[in-house]
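Researcher: I'm preparing a figure for a lab meeting and need a structural model of a single chain. I don't have an experimental structure, so a prediction will have to do for now. The sequence is pasted below. Please return the structure as tokens so I can convert it later.
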Amino acid sequence: MSVDYGKTLNLPKTDFPMRGNLPQREPEFLKKWEDMDIYKKQLAKNEGKPVFILHDGPPYANGGIHLGTSLNKILKDIVIKYYSMKGYKTPYVPGWDTHGLPIEQRAIKELGLKRHEVGPVKFRNACRDFALKYLDIQRNAFKRLGVRGDWNNPYVTLEPEFEAKQIEVFGEMAKKGYIYKGLRPVYWCPQCETALAEAEIEYLEDTTLSIYVKFNVKDDKGKFKSITDNVNDIYFVIWTTTTWTLPGNLAICLNAEFDYAVVKAGNEYYVVAEELIENVMKTAEIEEYQVVERFKGEELEGILCRHPFLDRDSVIITGDHVTLEAGTGCVHTAPGHGAEDFEVCKKYDIPVIVPVDDKGYLTEEAGQFAGLFYEKSNAAIIEQLKETGHLLTSEKIDHQYPHCWRCKEPIIFRATEQWFASVEGFRDEAIKAIDTVKWVPEWGKDRITAMVRDRGDWCISRQRIWGVPIPIFYCKECNKELINDQTIEAVANLFKERGSNAWYEVDTKDILPEGTKCECGCSEFEKEQDIMDVWFDSGSTHAAVLETIEGLYSPADMYLEGSDQHRGWFQSSLLTSVATRGRAPYKIVLTHGYVVDGEGRKMSKSLGNGIDPEDVIKEYGADILRLWVASSDYKSDIRISKDILKQLSEVYRKIRNTCRFILGNINDYDPNKDSVEYDKLYELDKWALMKLNKLIRVVDDAYSRYEFHLMFHAIHNFCVIDMSNFYLDIIKDRLYTSKADSIGRRAAQTAMFEILDALVKMLTPVLAFTTEEIWQHMPHKEGDDAESVQLNYWPVINETYDNKELEEKWAKIIRIRQVVSKALEIARTEKLIGHSLNAKVNIYTNESHYDFLKSIEKDLITIFIVSDVEIVNSEKVEGKFYEDEEFEGLKVVVSQAEGEKCERCWMISKTVGEDEKHPSICERCRAVIE
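Model: Understood. Here is the structure written out token by token.
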């Protein structure tokens, strides 16, 4: 009667599927986590432990999520889950930015609203509903990514409590004298009809016509008498790339220290900086010219010129901002269109003219060009200059020009009355505060320091409706502003009770405290109609969120956002915090780059290279997206493509299969009953645990330094090289063919369990879904929380496993195994053997290796996965052999092993056939089954 020896083997058994099938399986875990309220449970588990606060930067609730927001939220989740498993209490309150232009624009576009017609309350309610709709869409999308947080209680900038706190922050800054109203040039978007802050500007490539314009001298103050009696022939030549600003010209600025020359060309004389003569003449295609006089810039101050097409003078002034980098050294100066122009003209008491309206159309002050859109006016003005002979020359140039980062249209510089925060008032304190923060990567510190050092005052008013109103009143009689502790408190209390819509619903007299009067005696007031810059909203979260929600605190331990936030949220939060609290609102700032395609190009609709995170999840699952985040060095731009996702899917498969192999082979193992003491483990098992110790150290260090890609590579290499290709491959024979409860098999199971337990915990911050699935299929030690892997602590280093001598010994064995494996591969190619178990390996060696190899000869059969090994103390070999040039003193001969194949273990053995009862199996297998 034949025996089915296959049934006597300990073959792997597990319900853990080989295929991840993540798109279908992940939602099951989302429901599990929601049903058990995983967020509250992990907080409760670490109650009383140290706290780590990662404060969420609020995304705009004006559309679905994209890969950039996915990257950001996953990075945050990785950090939080790591700290949670390290024993920190990690409350995470997600937030949303719900005011501002992006939401107004989408509401206008999608709902067809006209904000000037429907009234502020109706329009604001529509914006609120729109924002809350997309908040919910984004919230569900972030949850689908496996991000853990207090999703039922997020902070939202439109909430009354938030708005009230924001008013208090504004009031504190005003009380300290940091808030003022002033006329000065600001970035202005004609499309959006509002002022913009520096953080709302992006520079894009633009092609424009640069022009050289001749300003005729009207009164030379006697400076040019030696040149000509007719000053009408003398011109100061300016250069500009913004032709439309010429109607605003009131002066021409020179540098007092520069040398200027009067250049004669034909019958005309041109004043330009001496260093730029050659370039100007070349551009104007003037070949014959001569310098007739030279002056320092300061000598020409006060000369009057005629405006080329308006009945107005243009005075020569001097300023340090004039350079010789381009143009003529004579700078067209329009105080209503540039910050430097504004400041230099202020010194000369030159008035400000702004001949462009809110929508970008030239006004009556532009003369014959009134009514033209500023861009359209360029061609008309140039044509006029040509006709009157005031255009010296022109040329096309490509340059970086500021655009509105909302509508992507070019902006203009326009002097308007706006509310500002005086950064100058606390700039030094802000720079000192930057030094107290840890910046990851380190260059972030230099970047934000330069931005704060060089920035102007912060324009915080916006000419829009959907936002937090600026809480200032104006006397109806004298128009003096009213803002004090009492008015701020009144507005804050009103907003806390009714929300900021109350500003438009409640009469001024019902907002202000009874008896409020202006200094002039008037008791009637009007409300400011501008709203605050949305960056002031999000910049106030350190006060409105961290200081108000139970369990949070300020400064937060970490802010984590994209690198563009050095000029955005990081900076607005820093400024409001330093101004009101005297410190930075964060201890660590971590920044990541932008998402680009596989070729490093920015994703755009025109290129057709965009990838929707929802599509990735549908095809691969959220864990693959999370693995992409962890595998990327986020300090620079992060690439993604279908090929990259396929490669990551393969990596994921290898990690999953490593875990599945272990699960299949510990199916009958209980770590609380069957574990083997360390001293009784096989040496190979001790080596595996030693490698595990090293991995835990590397991975923990990578996580702690936020170098997640190093963690990813370390775990991947461990699974593939140390485990699948070596340890797990070697111990298969012991696992499958030994007695189920033998010390050898239990020793291997003990090591494998320790490895899997640590591996799953270390992967939990990244592979949130897969690790939960593995956790459900594996046994657990007493004290571990079987409900969810997320409720367990980080693996601990076991110092007992560290063994330098063992490490060096097995490093040598592995190197020898590599040599033998190459010899076996050649033998297979040459059809000398089929499987490696068909082989006998003879190793010819000298004295330097002989004793070492002889001492482990009996283990080499298992290590090499062959049927026989013989160590020969000789370097003389007859016949064919293999040797590795990099490993001297070792020659390997592969031959067919003698004997028959054992039906049970598949090894070739001379003992097969010796037993009549079990003639088809070897002596070793007979001992196991009898």
